[in-house]
Design brief:
binds S-adenosylmethionine; about 20% strand; 7-stranded mixed beta sheet; alpha/beta; about 240 residues; Rossmann fold; 9 helices
Length: about 240
Amino acid sequence: MRDLEKIKGSRIYGRRRGPVLSATRQARLDKWLPKIEITLPEPGSTPALTPAEDYFPVPMKDYWLEIGFGKGEHLAAQAGLHPDIGMIGCEPFLNGVSGLVDLVEGQELANVRIFTDDARLLMDSLPDNSLGRTFILFPDPWPKARHHKRRMVSAGNIAALARLLKDGAELRIATDHMEYCRWIMAHMLRNDDFIWLCNQPQDWQRRPDDWPQSRYEIKSLAQGRHSSYLRFIRRHRRH
Ligand SMILES: C[S@@+](CC[C@H](N)C(=O)[O-])C[C@H]1O[C@@H](n2cnc3c(N)ncnc32)[C@H](O)[C@@H]1O
């Protein structure tokens, strides 16, 4: 397991706050977020790891994680399509959290829980084999070489996801940044725990039907950029 203090000390996300929220949105956030926010157990408490089901009022069929959900359009759409799945979203950007809270309240989604901090802290607090699916959609590319250490797709985070994902579970990653795409593929193919789901170019060039669009993707398309939709399967463990 990784050292929590090291994670806290190596900030990899961008800003926490954007423009001041309107009074209505702030009030909605204050009212609804405490009902669905995930608070991690204090370091050193027992048990050290918290099962995903502890964050939901009733056991769910499975648990899916979205890392960096932005304003939450994709996460809310998946939650609406799969009411029997517990959807966990991580996002440290408060204005984004407010966006998802608005959708959760407006669509009366009962199966969403939000962690408002670095996804790596939540990931390291979950037991092995916790997740049936994980999404990392349009992670910040941090294009300058000196910032590459901030990239969400890294050997350490891939190893953490290999631990968390169940046998046969899917990891979906999207990007519209060519160099980051090559980085993602190089890192993923170096890890023996994942198999890339790809038989033909359309498999990564076209967004699958069960993959709702995120806000970032809509903007990127409007600016004429193309995205890659990468799908990986957690290889079955040898028991
Ligand atoms: C380019 S945005 C994409 C947002 C969204 N996925 C979309 O497609 O619209 C990347 C998001 O990842 C979030 N992020 C960055 N580092 C993170 C981390 N360590 N844990 C959770 N979220 C993170 C950022 O705050 C930002 O909202």
